[in-house]
Amino acid sequence: MAKTLTRTLLAAAPLAAVPLALAIAGSQPALASTVPITFSAPGISGSLLLTYGSATDAKYASAFEITGVSGSFTDTNNGLGIVDAAVAALVAINYATPESTNLLAPHDFSKFTVASGLPLFNHGTLTYDNLFWPTGSVQTASDYPFSGGFLDIYGLMFQLPDGAVADLWSNGVVPGKTAADYGVAVADSQKSLDYVAGGVAAAVPEPGSFALLAAGLVLLAVNLAGRHAARRWRAKCA
Asked: Which ranges in the chain belong to alpha helices (H)?
């Protein structure tokens, strides 16, 4: 079933469900090996760098398998104290079996079981496939017609500290929108911790823009390191 979630567009989550504002500067790039993304909503935000190679999903040649993720994630909703947590790694693909009526699920379709707290239409699981769609996702569920976005409706799942995971997905281009909406959930194996849905258009930076961004981050890091070293030297000489 579509993210089993046919997502929050069709039902309300029992946890806080607020619009997700996903902001990524620039326009669609040529195929690259790294893609920076940022996302935010009330109480939740993140900055990620996705890595992918030439391998594609066995069913969809336009969907590239994400091989790595790094960055930071914050979620203070529902009393969570996750602030600038280091994103540890991807949650491994487990090639789960979709519902028999879902003939469009990617080969890399996977499930993460959550004991309680998810909306009923999730049937106790978050779904993911860790696929990046440079030219926009296609319909990937037989019962969910909407598509579009650099992720599909199953999305990207990555590990957070203390056993939690975050799941970032695209709802596709839904009625009333001209570009894809995004959502994010946070859970561990015992319960759903946060569930955010809806959103704004997203795009991937041009390679040139990404290069400038990366160079700026390097210069900032060098500058901060220099200031820290200078403070330590003055303290030592005092």
From this structure: 7-10, 207-237
Range of the domain at 150: 7-205
Whether residue 9 has pLDDT greater than 50: no
Render pLDDT for 128-182 as a digit per residue (tens, 0 to 9).
Answer: 999 999 899 999 999 999 999 999 999 999 999 888 999 999 999 989 888 788 8
Name every residue whose Cβ is closer than 8 Å to that of residue 230 and which is 6 or more positions away in sequence.
Answer: none
Same domain, 227 and 180: no
Q: What is the DSSP letter of 115?
A: S
Contacting residues for 112 by C-beta, under 8 A, at least 6 apart = 91, 125, 126, 127, 128, 157, 165, 167, 187, 189
Q: Is 139 within the bounds of a domain?
A: yes
3-state secondary structure of 90: strand
> Has residue 1 been placed in a domain?
no
Angstrom distance (rounded) from CA 44 to CA 49:
17
Q: Which residues contact 120 (CB under 8 A, 6 or more apart)?
A: 11
- 153 within 8 A of 3, measured Cβ to Cβ: yes
In DSSP terms, 128 is beta-bridged to: 110
Measured CA to CA, the distance from residue 88 to residue 144 in angstroms comes to: 31
Q: In what order do the strands lie in the sheet with 156-159?
A: 156-159, 165-172, 181-187, 192-196
